[in-house]
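Hi W.,

Here's what went into the run:
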Amino acid sequence: MVGNDGWARPWELQGNHRREGSKRIPSGCAIAGMINRKGRTMSGVDAIQSIALMHDRSNGLGGGFAAYGIYPEFPEHYAFHLFFDDHKAREQTESFLNQHFNIELGGPIPTRKVVGISGAPLIWRYFAKPKLEQLRVAEMKEDDFVVNMVMFINERLDGAYVFSSGKNMGAFKGVGYPEDIGEFYRLDEYRGYIWTAHGRFPTNTPGWWGGAHPFTLLDLSVVHNGEISSYGANRRFLEMFGYRCTLQTDTEVMTYIFDLLLRRQGLPLETAVKAVAAPFWSTIARMPQAQREVLTAIRTVYSSLLVNGPFSIVLGSSQGIMALNDRVKLRPLVAATKGDLLYVASEESAIREICPKPERVWSPRGGEPVIGMLEDAMPKAVPAPPVTVCHL
Amino acid sequence: MVTIDSRGIYYRDLNRMIKQAINDGAGEVVLKNVNGQRYIGDGLRGSQRIVIEGTPGNDLAAYMDGLEILVKGNAQDGVANTMNDGTVVIYGDAGDTMGYAMRGGQVYVRGHAGCRVAIHMKEYQDKVPLMVIGGRAGDFLGEYMAGGILVVLGLGLQPGEDIVGDFCGTGMHGGVMYIRGQVADYQLGREVKLVSLDEGDYQRLHAIVQRFAGYFRLNTSRIMAEPFHKLIPYNKRPYGDLYAKA
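Here's what came out:
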């Protein structure tokens, strides 16, 4: 969605100077997600195999994963994953982080050399907690404080991008095919109870490390196939709440929309879904009165958060996953269950690759969420008090 | 007969092997352990048979001209895209946009089908495509449909489950649908209407259902015992006046 941005176009990054469209690449993005609802962990190998089966849906310009439950040794620390253009950016950012956080442990994220992955930035990880005196000065709740710090770094600190900021979870992403990215980050060595995965085929925005999926904030992550035609309207609305869109890719707004609706405004997930993939007015008109009034209110209050355009997404959180299509289903999505496991993917074969005999396989309707929560998921928090705009 | 264990074989290599087997004179090719390989049967001409065990990838039988493909499992999106002739039989469910711009041949699905099935299916003279869906179909069934015969049987529906989704027949301007069950007015696109079947329709349907029932070992008369509705477009050119009044 970001045009005239000065970024190199993907085909230039590949060293291929032909005009876009001169070579037909039969692709669309690929997404996948899985959860063990009992909270039992799986290695990253399943997620890699599932997304790798859909290799031809992406073109090597982006791949990534989000994994939950991977840092049990630091359950209460924010696990910040950052890209740095150079060590100067790293030093500047570390000095900023040290000012606001107590860092328990920091260092490069372990990677291995992989053919097909090149041009990686510096990739570092910090386990940290906000300094109490900084929280007092800011007069903020811890999660709002962390969000502001993420926004500040991404917007103001040159050459530094936070691409993961949740507790006991992490995003791993970059430019390359997803299976190579998984190998690069050694995801076979991690175990999580939720994995989401993405293979990218960038159409409107540059293929760069920060633009790969998932897009995360705190423990929320989004992988997305499609394009968000309402990006401008969504972005303007979100900016009023302190969100800064800095990552050159439309999907970013989806993460912030769910952060705003779920965490800050305390909406139930099903209600947030109705704002993002709102039913048609003609459908609302046929509903019983009570339901009609609720839906009318949601569409009216959150009209600027309606996400237009074709999409399928998987939203990850520490409590569960949710897969969703745009309301007229212009992108593929299949779901399957087996025992405690829920799988979603762009193609059924990607599920069968790691779960050959699922008990149930189905294709959700447009706008109909597929939700898989942990069995002992914490009850939904009471709505937060009225929100004030957070200034940086 | 040639049997190919397809596990882990890249789609291009698999399709090359299928073509090679057919060129070498095989009348039947059995593909075991298929999972996600795209474009199987695409553009092939002839009267051979391909049996697929597993889940074939997208665009199965696209541009196919002849051949019979049996899928012992579910199919993904884009089955019979622009297919010209031949038969596809799916023992499980099918995905979205099946029969996109299909112009001839036949597709039989035992289970359910996804969204936008038969979008812009078309016919010309003796080329009249036929598609039969055993279960239910999703939203936008027959969108912009320009020709052909589309039958939805609604077998195995749960109580309260709709046989077709919303926006059924939106933009439809040719061909006919036969739906075995109720369709509410709000589910219909603006360009179509429900009419009763005449004796000719029932004779035609009987022959179609008989062939469907034969593939899946079902009872024709039990299927025909339930009432059907016929869906046809009001107009052959619904958008003729969109930009210029005559």
